[in-house]
């Protein structure tokens, strides 16, 4: 007999599992460090000094709280639900990624690590990591697939300006998953000195938990801000999902609120039916990669498939294990939108709101565009505008056939 | 657990007073035909235990040599079923040499743990090394494998401290695979004094033979390891010989198999020359 869950917020268990998902599927070389990280994080969590330093940096360095913004023109345009944005694109470095990097570099410092590594896809996490490494004066190496380096050239230069070494990754599909493999290889080699700042709610336990906790500032703020603005909680939360850290950060503080529906939006790329997409929850199956069990894009032999998305940040064949669990227990609905739909939302938001969104949250907005017109004006949608689109203008110009 | 091929092989080696040579090749590298021929001829060249790699797209603990070997095998259409089939064909001609499958968990997970273990046992697999399954995840594959008489060979590394060692050794079987450096396969080897110390400690605490791998590239390296451990494992260096004998378009050059067999023979000589057998010493 299974008891109904009385909370969705107490995961992971002592084995790092959310239901069957998560875990610690790493090489023996990394295990002692993964256990040490868990210990250090548990201590840090209950240390008021750690929390105070985190909060201070978020306020004065990152610029939190990020505003909650009522999008009057988009709301009028869709003619249905009231649409709010949580403006995490206004953070220092231009995305939500910095929240997590601040938390992890404070942990690295506590653990006496002297070198930082990270993987990056869209480059937002790479920039955020290079930024905190500069701030804390630690050498930093960022692994990035050559395909992503090509499509995000300006961001590579930003990382270099911040003092990071950017290592091009040419193995496999030359994108985010391969950058993560390479970062893991570096980590396994330099385990004594090096802290690996993982950019999303994936990887071996305790990464999914700690990244979620650091990103949950988004949902906590949004909750208070919505109470002030509307005197009640929102009806629907919408966020894009690659690994899923911005969505997890927004959703987690609301998971036990019965009245709040949640929708995670994956990248359908050229269309689910084409096989060229990054929608692991919509079209994947459970498997084990990068330290955790989760939904993966894989073939009939358990080989990992290349993901495709116009958004480099969503171009990953897996998803955080907590999302996999929330999908299976049906607490969160997961949908997908195509490159084309995201491009349309990107342009619409730029013109109507004067906000150029990153391609990642353009996916979330494309789904809002689908549901908002069907809902009444009393329905409140809260969408996470998790990144700004400066980094994407070249890709968008290219997709629209514009030469700059 | 009743004595199996791995235990018998190490008992034989102890009687001969020498260390063993463990070789690793990726299944179906560079193509199914040449790959099988190499695999099947390893024992006659002097390999005492053979490890067969199960290719995976995302081998996160392997260096470039083995990554690329896996890509060659995948491109040649090698799936887990083909790997098991190779073991079956190997067993038809050699019922003595222990065969250990080495790789990552996801292809097994996708195949299904129970069907995989049944198929592996029926094919004649003696042990498994699954890089991304530490003791914390023993319920996944290690315990089901033990229940079917398949050894779960544990990796110990320089980061495995005394506190952790008991859990690493708890369900270990066959032998202990000591990874002599923190790093990926094909990396530089660790200092012999440190290896010697770690091996003695592992031997004492596990009661199992210890094989040392990572960074053993030459017959001389292998000999040096053979003086301090029960076996030396050679992987990347062997895979590189295969890579070096390919045309630009990836087709194997004539004589590829002979080249690999010759290299293994030299390694085996290195291992066999390392210790003076007690009979001739007296």
List strands and helices in order, with pairings.
The complex is a heterodimer of chains A (about 400) and B (about 280).
Chain A: E1 17-18, E2 21-25, H1 31-45, H2 48-62, E3 68-70, H3 72-78, E4 82-86, H4 97-110, E5 115-120, H5 124-135, E6 140-145, H6 146-151, H7 153-161, E7 165-169, H8 176-189, E8 194-196, H9 207-215, H10 217-230, E9 236-240, H11 245-251, E10 261-269, H12 280-283, E11 285-289, E12 291-296, H13 321-328, E13 333-338, H14 339-353, H15 359-371, E14 380-384, H16 393-399
Parallel strand pairs in A: 4-14, 5-6, 5-8, 6-7, 9-10, 9-14, 10-13
Antiparallel strand pairs in A: 1-2, 2-12, 3-4, 11-12
Helix pairs in contact in A: 2-4, 3-14, 4-5, 4-9, 5-7, 9-11, 10-11, 14-15
Chain B: H1 5-16, E1 20-26, H2 32-45, E2 49-53, H3 64-75, H4 80-93, E3 99-103, H5 105-111, H6 113-123, E4 127-130, H7 142-147, E5 151-152, E6 154-156, H8 165-170, E7 176-179, H9 192-206, E8 210-213, H10 219-226, E9 231-234, H11 236-244, H12 256-274, H13 278-281
Parallel strand pairs in B: 1-2, 1-9, 2-3, 3-4, 4-5, 6-7, 7-8, 8-9
Helix pairs in contact in B: 2-12, 4-6, 10-12
- Treating each run of at least 4 consecutive H or I residues as one helix, how many helices of chain A? 16
Total domain units of chain B: 1
Structural class of chain A: alpha/beta
Strand arrangement across the biggest beta sheet of chain B: 5-4-3-2-1-9-8-7-6
Most extensive interface between two protein chains, with residue counts: A-B, 41 and 44 residues
Distance between the termini of chain B: 36 Å
- Biggest β-sheet: strands ordered side by side in the sheet of chain A: 3-4-14-9-10-13
> Which descriptor suits the 3D outline of chain A?
globular
Largest sheet of chain A: 6 strands, mixed
Helix content of chain B: 40-55%
Low-confidence stretches of chain B: none
CATH superfamily of chain B: Aldolase class I
Total helix count of chain B?
A: 13
Strand content of chain B: 5-15%
Number of strands of chain A: 14
Counting DSSP E segments of at least 2 residues, the number of strands of chain B comes to 9
Oligomeric description of these chains: heterodimer
Average pLDDT of chain A: 96
Compute the gyration radius of chain A: what is it?
20 Å
Q: How much helical structure, as a percent, in the residues of chain A?
A: 40-55%
As a percent range, the share of strand residues of chain A is 15-25%
